[in-house]
Amino acid sequence: MKKITTDIIVIGAGPGGMAAALKASEMGVKNILLVDRLPEPGGILQQCIHNGFGLHKFQKDLTGPEYADIYIKRLKNSDIEVLLQTMAVEISKGSKVMLSNSTEGLIEVDAKAIVLAMGCRERTRQQVSIPGTRPSGIFTAGVAQRFVNIEGYMPGKEVVVVGSGDIGMIMARRMTLEGAKVHAVTELLPYPGGLTRNVVQCLNDLNIPLHLSHNVVDIYGKDRVSGVKIAKIDKGGKPTDETFEISCDTLLFSVGLIPENELSRMMPLDINPVTGGPFIDDAYQTSMPGTFICGNAAFVNDLADYVSCEGEIAGVSAANYVNDSLEGKMKVSVVAGDNIRFVVPNFIARTEPVTLYARVTQPMLDVRVTSSGDIVNMKKQIVKPSEMIEIHLDSEKLKKIKGTRELMIDVRPDK
Question: Which of 175, 230, 269, 306 lies at a 20 to 30 A Cα distance from 368?
Answer without folding.
Answer: 306
